[in-house]
Design goal:
The complex is a heterodimer.
Chain A: H1 13-36, H2 44-54, H3 66-101, H4 113-127, H5 131-155, H6 161-185, H7 190-197, H8 206-225, H9 227-233, H10 237-242, H11 247-269, H12 275-286, H13 291-315, H14 324-346
Helix pairs in contact in A: 1-3, 1-13, 3-8, 3-11, 3-12, 3-13, 4-5, 4-6, 4-7, 4-11, 5-6, 5-11, 8-11, 9-13, 12-13, 12-14, 13-14
Chain B: H1 2-24, E1 56-60, E2 63-67, E3 74-76, H2 79-87, E4 94-97, H3 119-123, E5 129-132, H4 139-145, E6 150-152, H5 159-173, H6 176-201, E7 205-209, H7 222-229, E8 233-234, H8 251-257, E9 261-264, H9 273-278, H10 286-289, E10 293-295, H11 307-322
Parallel strand pairs in B: 3-4, 3-5, 5-6, 7-8, 7-9, 9-10
Antiparallel strand pairs in B: 1-2
Helix pairs in contact in B: 1-6, 5-6, 6-11
Classes of the chains: A mainly alpha, B alpha/beta.
């Protein structure tokens, strides 16, 4: 890529492949641990046999009780799946935003996804109907907030990323203020809202997994397809246009995909912070600044990271649960600092 | 748990005995008459009786609080305190209660908030006593600065604490006698209930659901202690080693524990046996299969008031009916 004005830090292809393999391995191990470990201890070898039995074409007898099978397939398996999808979406969404806006702190939360979803959920809890309704309102709130950010950003006249991000900050502040006001007026919903905000994979089942799956596939696929364009965008709008890239179109596609998927993820799992910032940056610091590397690695490491965080959330205080949002911040922030420091020393 | 249960029970029985002798010979211990003056319905200065001995000093969580004269403009920012004030006969002296205080019917509900109290709006009612369950910061200081006594009565985490708060409210408002009588009758009702159904339902395992994200109550809460008193075994206890009272349980833990009875405090928010059945792994649980799911009132079951005794009787009787099935 001669187009990049960044110092070419791109490392040779071979170690990168190793990192991908390592990431996949980490994800598989986190996933297996997520299936085999938990507040209820299941017999290890029998659980493995039961898992093998689930692989199509493999028949294996096991001695798990109905309850144990339900715990394995109905409770843990969807959680691992959901954790993987949410982690991948948040991480790749963050990476995509950082590329599109050329802003290292950008992620979908910045354009109002989090604040909008929070507001929607608060309204949902205030009206007090069922959980599906809260999910729907959170999704509408998230997409609505980003749409508003867009309209405001465009109305500011210039088409730069700064206008958009400023609009996002304003919309987030406004939505948060509105949410706080509603909470003050309906203080009985305070706990439900905070539980929601801190993030939860606690109650996830296969139906939620099925609901998020299309978003995950489409969004992750679209962003993956645009990973080269993200590298070109890195040189600046004018230069990228001169190189023949349809800047507006790429920006729209990537932002729309990342936003919709994040909104969908957030409406099911609650607000899980830090993943969209920490995962892409850690990858950037440890491997390459090219989005051809960052995007695929974000998908794999994001998935593994969230599955691992969820495992911590449900085992460290077992049989009580910790909110996963606290775990991601608690584990993620210091880890990120360590990476930052060690890379700083190297260079 | 067994030791704790019998200890509470003994304490209750002692209390019943003490109270019954007290009211039997109608000699007084703390106050004077048994609250007859409070039957007057006029509001204002005329309700002030000459009987209760003021000034009094009472013990609240914010230390010793001195109350100079019988309060006539009480503000309660706690639904439980509101119920307890009315129960001890101080309802006439209450001028404003917070937006969550929805019982009893005649309570002067306002838009004051107990969660985010505003000093100025509270002072606009010109109170001479304010009762709160928690101070978000500066409230007690602010009210004390302008000479308004404040009683901080935090969420009761035990039967003992609940009785203590009711007595403090009685003492502070000139209704010591009625408060003692309310406590005696609660204690009597509880021990009677234990005698009636205790044998039948003791050992039944329960899961009390606060919300669909599996927040629950342990025996370290007021309602949890009521359950423990009946000998019910609470599955949330294992998740609450620090005695916080309201742990969030892991889904698989609930399924694995397979409690005999599920108490749904979130039934008013769309949860029912039908939604339980749809939860992953729940349809095979005993309580769901046997229809041993009981919807409970989220207000009554979270307050430490005389109504809780009626509530726990209803729960005990409902469980007793289910026992042959479970």
């Amino acid at each position: 890529m001669k187009t990049s004005t960044e110092p070419t830090r791109t490392k040779p292809a071979k170690p990168r492949r190793l990192v991908i393999v390592f990431g996949l391995l980490a994800w598989v191990i986190a996933g297996l641990a997520g299936l085999l470990l938990g507040p209820v201890s299941l017999p290890f070898s029998e659980s493995l046999r039961a898992l093998a039995d689930a692989i199509p074409g493999v028949a294996m007898a096991h001695s798990l009780t109905d309850t144990q099978v339900a715990i394995l397939y109905e409770i843990r398996a969807p959680r691992v799946m959901m954790g993987s999808m949410v982690g991948a979406i948040l991480a790749v969404g963050g990476a995509a935003y950082q590329g599109v806006f050329r802003n290292p702190l950008a992620d979908p939360y910045l354009l109002g996804v989090a604040a909008g979803a929070g507001l929607g959920a608060t309204i949902g809890f205030g009206i007090g109907t069922d959980a599906n309704f809260v999910t729907l309102l959170a999704f509408l709130g998230a997409t609505g907030a980003v749409a508003l950010t867009y309209l405001l950003g465009r109305s500011m006249g210039n088409r730069t990323a700064t206008a958009l991000i400023l609009a996002g900050v304003a919309v987030s502040a406004f939505a948060t203020a509105l949410q706080t006001y509603l909470l003050q007026r309906n203080s009985d919903t305070l706990r439900s809202v905070y539980t929601w905000v801190f993030g939860r994979l606690t109650t996830v089942g296969w139906s939620e997994v099925g609901g998020l799956f299309p978003y995950a596939i489409v969004a992750v696929g679209l962003i993956f397809a645009q990973r080269r364009a993200l590298d070109v965008l890195g040189v600046g709008d004018d230069e990228a246009s001169a190189l023949g890239l349809n800047v507006t179109r790429v920006r729209w596609v990537v932002v729309l995909a990342a936003t919709l998927a994040t909104a969908a993820a957030v409406s099911v799992s609650g607000l899980i912070g830090f993943v969209g910032i920490i995962v892409p940056h850690t990858i950037r610091l440890m491997t390459s600044w090219s989005y051809r590397v960052i995007v695929p690695l974000s998908i794999v490491f994001g998935a593994g990271f969230l599955v691992a965080a969820d495992l911590v959330a449900r085992t460290v205080a077992a049989p009580a649960e910790l909110p996963i949002g606290i775990v991601t911040a608690f584990l993620g922030a210091p880890f990120f600092l360590v990476v930052l420091r060690s890379v700083g020393r190297e260079s | 748990m067994f030791i704790k249960r019998s200890a509470v029970l003994t304490a209750l029985l002692l209390m019943v005995a003490a109270c019954s002798t007290g009211s039997g010979d109608s000699t007084t211990t703390v106050g004077t008459t048994s609250g007859a003056p409070e039957t007057t319905t006029t509001l204002g200065e005329s309700t002030t009786t000459s009987e209760p001995a003021f000034p009094v000093t009472v013990d609240a969580a914010n230390g010793q609080v001195a109350i100079e004269a019988m309060p006539e403009a009480i503000i309660s920012l706690s639904p439980s305190a509101t119920e307890n004030l009315f129960a001890v006969g101080a309802g006439q002296q209450v001028v404003a209660v917070d937006d969550q205080s929805n019982y009893p019917e005649g309570a002067p509900t306002t838009d004051l908030s107990g969660f985010t109290p505003n000093l100025e709006s509270i002072l606009s009612y010109d109170p001479d006593l304010v009762v709160i369950t928690f101070d978000p910061g500066g409230l007690i200081e602010g009210l004390t600065a302008v000479g308004v006594p404040v009683l901080l009565l935090p969420s009761a985490t035990s039967i003992d604490a609940a009785f203590g708060e009711i007595q403090v409210l009685g003492d502070a408002t000139g209704h010591s006698e009625e408060a003692a009588a309310v406590i005696a009758s609660m204690a009597a009702d509880l021990s009677e209930l234990v005698a009636e159904v205790g044998e039948l339902i003791a050992g039944t395992t329960i899961y009390h659901e606060l919300d669909p994200t599996y927040y629950s109550v342990s025996s370290a809460s007021y309602v949890g202690e009521l359950y423990a008193l009946l000998g019910l075994v609470n599955i949330a206890d294992a998740a609450d080693p620090e005695g916080f009272g309201y742990p969030q349980l892991a889904a698989e833990y609930i399924v694995d524990q397979d409690p005999d009875v599920i108490l749904l405090a979130d039934a008013g928010f769309g949860e029912s046996i039908d939604t339980l059945r749809q939860r992953p792994g729940w349809s095979e649980m005993k309580a769901v299969a046997n229809d041993a799911v009981i919807a409970i009132d989220p207000d009554v079951s979270s307050r430490w008031t005389p109504r809780s005794v009626v509530f726990i009787r209803e729960v005990a009787e409902a469980i007793a009916e289910l026992v042959p099935v479970g």
